[in-house]
Design goal:
7-stranded mixed β-sheet, alpha/beta, Endonuclease, Chain A
Length: 224
């Protein structure tokens, strides 16, 4: 069941933050800063406006490329649960997301959540039967030490669940964070071409049910 928006139900954004934004914007003097900086400020204002418009009207917003701020903010702001489906080639394999600076910050924030009693679950979806390497063993061991509940989904088990495998994270059963990797073009592995946030309750509920199906057929990390 999707949790209600306990903290924000019936309320707008914090008035002090809205006033701070408006005050800051009105203080920007195009004659007092370089033209390039003014163009940057204009672009950022348009981006922020588009973000809020999309959330308010469609409950969905897309970022072209690999996001950083959304991921860390959603993680640190979660109060109940995080459920992640991690594609091997994106997060552990050649792309090595979980070993990047962003990946390490993401895991460190999850460790803090686990210490506060937030349940964090992750399913590593393998892309080949021979992907049971030492690298994945170490990843699972490290995440378990942080308090993350980890399982592995083998290619042979995929027939038991419906739909294509996707790299997604469900925060507090209310926000679905979904990344789209590009086709691999070289030794560096896939890159993220788009990141999408979806707040639509029915969509998030279906994503949660899909995660539950995967969790049931996934197995505990291998030993030995």
């Amino acid at each position: 069941m999707v949790r209600p928006h306990e903290e924000n139900e019936g309320l707008g954004l914090p008035p002090e933050l809205v006033r701070r934004l408006i005050d800051s914007v009105t203080k920007v003097d195009r004659d007092a800063i370089p033209a390039l900086a003014f163009r940057l400020a204009t672009t950022e204002l348009a981006r922020v406006s588009t973000f809020f418009e999309a959330l308010a009207t469609s409950g969905e917003v897309t970022y072209e490329g690999e996001d950083r701020d959304w991921l860390l903010s959603l993680t640190s702001g979660s109060h109940h649960s995080i459920e992640a489906v991690s594609l091997y080639n994106v997060d552990v394999g050649r792309h090595h997301f979980l070993t990047t600076d962003l990946g390490r910050r993401y895991l460190a924030e999850q460790a803090r959540l686990c210490d506060r009693g937030v349940r964090v679950r992750r399913i590593h979806v393998l892309d080949a039967a021979d992907a049971h390497g030492e690298e994945l063993r170490e990843v699972c061991r490290q995440q378990r030490e942080l308090g993350i509940d980890v399982r592995i989904l083998n290619p042979a088990d995929r027939d038991e669940v419906h739909g294509p495998m996707r790299d997604i994270i469900i925060f507090d059963e209310t926000v679905s964070y979904e990344t789209t990797p590009a086709a691999e073009t070289g030794d560096d592995g896939p890159i993220i071409v788009a990141t999408r946030l979806v707040l639509q309750p029915d969509w998030v509920r279906r994503r949660g049910e899909w995660f539950g199906e995967l969790w049931e057929v996934a197995t505990e990390p291998f030993d030995g």
